[in-house]
Write a structure and sequence with these properties.
mainly beta; 4 domains; Immunoglobulin-like; 6% helix; 40% strand; 13-stranded antiparallel beta sheet; 901 residues
Length: 901
């Protein structure tokens, strides 16, 4: 600044002299008085705004301490628009020559926005100057606006910031106030409409301010000075009525900067809010017009502003609520790689910038406000989920000295998934910031990881909205259309199945995998039942069962784990795969009886994706065993369709039974298939199948042994008891069918067939006791305990009743034998269907005596008879044997020999 150097030195020496001679108590530093006023309390009008303060002084007139900083906090809603007035640069203000009447090179007269009556201590006493206040170029992104003035000869800057840590009101700060000429008091008037002709007499230059003896100066010659501008509002009153308004002041000294002095002044509440217009409009456009696909959204909220100097402003927006169409939901795929931003990271309650992870950004934002020099950019970040508020967001912008951090609440209907979003501000602000905004533009990201899923069907849909003004008038509600007109071929249901074992070798243990897939546009899967091929069994022996509360909650013991799972969910080409890396796995456990089935699976699926944790989903699946073929069918309970308002759309369901030595391949190499029944949410039924075949059957041997023995009397007409023992060899192919023909020494005594169980009774487990003619016990390496059960005579379509071995225990197996007679009177029993499952030993005992079905046709001791045995294996091998039908004759002969002398 071009000032006389001598003047500055003298000022410094005078100040120093007073500072050293005074016996000031710096702790007495403070604000003596503070007041503020508005020229009008009409809401939305453009007032002249006056603030006045006086600092405490000693009797000598000197301050107790030199002022370091003055802060003025205006009430929220009292806004300014520095863009309607030319801006003065810092260089123009600093280089002003206060002794040059021409004012050449200094701030333009059109940049003046008010006057300040400044009282300083100089030359041994207090001096008052009337100084022009200029609209300045703000210092980069450090402030939203800046004012400047010449305090006698020293340039002073007043930076305007937004109280981002609280109510988003404006804060004016004089930092680093000059200590050479201490500031004692100031009364500052900012003009509501700086270009108004009523202010022309007070448009002065720094020269005039310094040389007019402290009186208001006019232009040379006494004529008012025109700004040369079209009148436009620089200040605007709040658009909220009835609420008390306060303006605060903080003063700090150099001596005790940590002990500020504060004061509060009251302003009259606003009135006349009924005169304020409020006419917002909303448009919502999907980034993809494809049905049943991920989509972003382009959202434009227009808030027309009345920016004319001669009229009052439009009411500002207090609350906003938008409800997307039903059918448009959260897309699970968006969670893949998504992070979250905490309240600490966003800097909530602070005046600093946000530091949210870039991976938490889900949208970009553009905000157009007349108060800002340009449209500012921002972003929408996913908020760190908390219980009861999983989908909250932050709307953030850190530009032009503004640090905007608005929490948004996103609610997903727990039944339909319909989304509603509300912005209501913070508790401190009682609503959205009371700042004028022309337009909000939000662009939610598109592509396969877009945050939203389009409705399942094409058509027109409505987004409903409700916007509430600060004026207190009724909210503006309405609806805006959007449409989806591509990919309309939806609603089908044809899922595909792929299944098999990792090692397709006959009779070998191998992990079994099943993968069910569904296209994005098809109906969702609601339940499924899977039937592995005959002979694909599981070794349940040694597996701890998950039962009781543990099965209900999924807190199963590790010893019951039998498999793992993966699920893909969500629309489009890139659904979300669960579990995600680093998340808890999906596990399958073996459980006990469930819904009438002997065994069940408990599938524990932690619903974790990105920053979200929806808890643990437990699904049960009953394992039913066909008693004739031993083929299993696994039928799931209804699958969850929505979690915490997020639809679960099953694109892929993958299960792998990977427990060591659990799943066992069949010993048949016949081409078979894995069958399934899959239900959709509308009740459609699909039956996808997967080809299944193992190899290596020729490598399996087949050498079972069967022994039969009669117990009891051996004379003709006696009814002996029969005991048959079958011993398959370990590692051989399993028995597929068996035919046993007794020698002609044994006939069927039809007179002893008294009670026969009907098929209806058998199906209902209601066979009478009289239909039991024997008992059986089967031991298998697949089960911990043997299977036991009665042998019934059951009605048949044949001449004679069937012989049914009804084995029970942890599972039920019914071996049905057809009884007929061969030529010459012998009895033959044929078991045409035997499950492809390994047996260690089978013992069959048929009763004798009065319940005996067999009768001796001759004396058994006169000659041993032989049994004709034909056994077929599942691998195609067969074996014929003629073992002797053993009896008690040999024992009788030994006893008779021992009795002879």
């Amino acid at each position: 600044m071009r000032r006389p150097a001598l003047l500055s030195v003298l000022a410094f020496l005078v100040t120093l002299a007073f500072a050293t001679s005074a016996r000031a108590d710096v702790s007495d530093y403070g604000i003596k008085s503070f007041s503020a006023s508005l020229s009008t309390n009409q809401a939305g009008d453009h007032p002249d705004f006056v603030t006045s303060f006086d600092l405490k002084r000693e009797p000598s007139g000197l301050l107790h301490a030199t002022t370091r900083e003055i802060v003025i906090d205006s009430p929220p809603g009292l806004t300014g628009n520095p863009n309607v007035v030319p801006k003065c640069t810092a260089a123009q203000l600093v280089l002003t020559d206060v002794n040059d009447p021409s004012g050449e090179g200094s701030c333009p007269i059109g940049s003046q926005v008010g006057i300040s009556e400044v009282t300083v201590f100089n030359e041994g006493g207090a001096r008052t100057f009337i100084e022009p206040v200029y609209n300045m170029e703000p210092p980069g992104d450090e402030a939203v606006a800046r004012l400047g003035l010449i305090a006698e000869v020293f340039p002073t800057f007043i930076d305007i910031r937004v109280r981002s840590e609280g109510d988003y009101g404006l804060r004016a700060t004089i930092e680093g106030a000059g200590s050479l000429i201490p500031l004692l008091a100031a009364t500052t008037t900012l003009w509501g409409v700086p270009a108004a002709s009523s202010h022309d007499p007070l448009r002065i230059t720094p020269y005039e301010a310094l040389h007019c003896g402290g009186e208001p100066c006019t232009s040379p010659g006494g004529a008012p000075r025109d700004s040369g501008l079209i009148p436009a509002p620089f200040l605007t009153n709040p658009t909220r009525c009835g609420a008390p308004l306060e303006i605060g002041m903080i003063a700090r000294s150099y001596a005790l900067p940590d002990q500020p002095s504060t004061a509060i002044a009251s302003l009259p509440a606003m009135a006349g809010c009924g005169k304020l217009d409020f006419d917002p409009t909303l448009t919502v456009t999907p980034s993809s017009g494809e049905a049943a696909a991920p989509t972003g959204l382009d959202v434009r909220l227009a808030l027309p502003q009345d920016e004319n100097a001669g009229s009052i402003a439009t009411s500002q927006l207090r609350y906003a609520r938008v409800v997307l169409p039903q059918g448009m939901t959260i897309a699970p795929g968006a969670a893949d790689g998504l992070a979250a931003c905490s309240a600490v990271e966003v800097g909530l309650g602070t005046s600093g910038p946000a530091s949210c992870p870039s991976a938490s950004k889900i949208a970009t934002v553009e905000i157009d406000s007349p108060s800002l020099a340009r449209v500012i950019d921002g972003a929408v970040f996913q908020r760190t989920p908390v219980k009861g508020n999983l989908f909250g967001v932050w709307l953030v912008s850190d530009e032009l000295g503004l640090h905007l951090k608005l929490p948004g609440e996103v609610e997903a209907d727990p039944v339909t998934g319909q989304l509603s979003t509300s912005f209501t501000g913070t508790a401190e602000s009682e609503g959205l910031p009371q700042e004028p905004v022309r337009e909000f533009r939000l662009h939610f990201k598109s592509g396969p990881r877009a945050p939203l899923a389009a409705p399942q069907s094409c058509g027109a849909y409505l987004t409903h909205y409700e916007f509430t003004p600060w004026s207190g008038r009724s909210p503006v509600a309405g609806a805006t259309p959007m449409s989806f007109d591509r990919g309309c071929e939806t609603g089908g249901f044809s899922p595909e199945l792929s299944a098999g074992t990792a090692n397709p070798v006959a009779g070998a243990f191998a992990a079994f995998t099943m993968t069910l897939t569904r296209e994005s546009r098809e109906q969702n899967i609601s339940a499924l039942a899977l039937s592995p091929p005959r002979g694909l069994s599981a070794k349940l022996a040694g597996v701890t069962l998950c039962e009781g509360v543990a099965a209900e909650t999924g807190s199963c013991p590790p010893a019951s784990r039998v498999g793992i799972g993966r699920v893909a969910t969500g629309p489009g080409a890139a659904p979300l795969w669960l579990p995600q890396p680093g998340k808890d796995p999906i596990l399958a456990y073996l459980s006990g009886p469930y819904k009438g089935a002997p065994y069940s699976f408990v599938v524990k699926a932690p619903a974790q994706a990105g920053p979200f944790d929806f808890g643990t989903v437990v699904t049960r699946a009953a394992i039913r065993i066909n008693p004739t073929t031993a083929r299993a069918t696994v039928a799931s309970d209804p699958l969850p369709q929505i979690l915490e308002g997020v639809p679960v759309t099953y694109r892929t369901i993958h299960v792998e039974l990977d427990r060591r030595r659990f799943a066992l391949n069949p010993t048949s190499c016949t081409e078979m298939q894995v069958d399934s029944k899959v239900a959709s949410v509308t009740g459609q039924l699909a039956t996808p199948r997967s080809r299944f075949q193992v190899g290596g059957c020729r490598d399996l041997g087949f050498r079972p042994t069967l022994s039969l023995r009669l117990f009891g009397k051996t004379n003709r007409g006696a009814h002996p008891r029969l005991r048959a023992v079958l011993r398959p060899r370990k590692g051989d192919a399993n028995i597929a069918s068996a035919q046993v023909a007794l020698p002609r020494s044994e006939f069927l005594d039809q007179e002893h067939i008294r009670t026969v169980c009907t098929r209806v009774q058998f199906a209902q487990d209601g066979c009478p006791k009289g239909s039991i003619y024997g008992f059986a016990k089967a031991t298998t390496p697949l089960l911990d305990e043997p299977l036991r059960g009665p042998v019934y005579l059951r009605s048949s379509n044949n001449t004679l009743p069937d012989l049914v071995i009804a084995l029970g225990g942890s599972i039920e197996i019914d071996a049905v034998g057809r009884i007929d007679s061969i030529k010459g009177g012998g009895i033959r029993t044929t078991f045409a269907v035997v499950p492809d499952a390994p047996l260690t030993r089978l013992v069959l005992t048929m009763q004798g005596g009065g319940k005996g079905l067999l009768v001796n046709s001759r004396n058994l001791c006169k000659g041993a008879g032989r049994v004709e045995v034909e056994l077929d294996a599942h691998n195609g091998r067969s074996i014929d044997r003629n073992p002797t039908l053993q009896n008690d004759c040999a024992q009788k002969r030994r006893r008779n020999t021992q009795k002879k002398p």
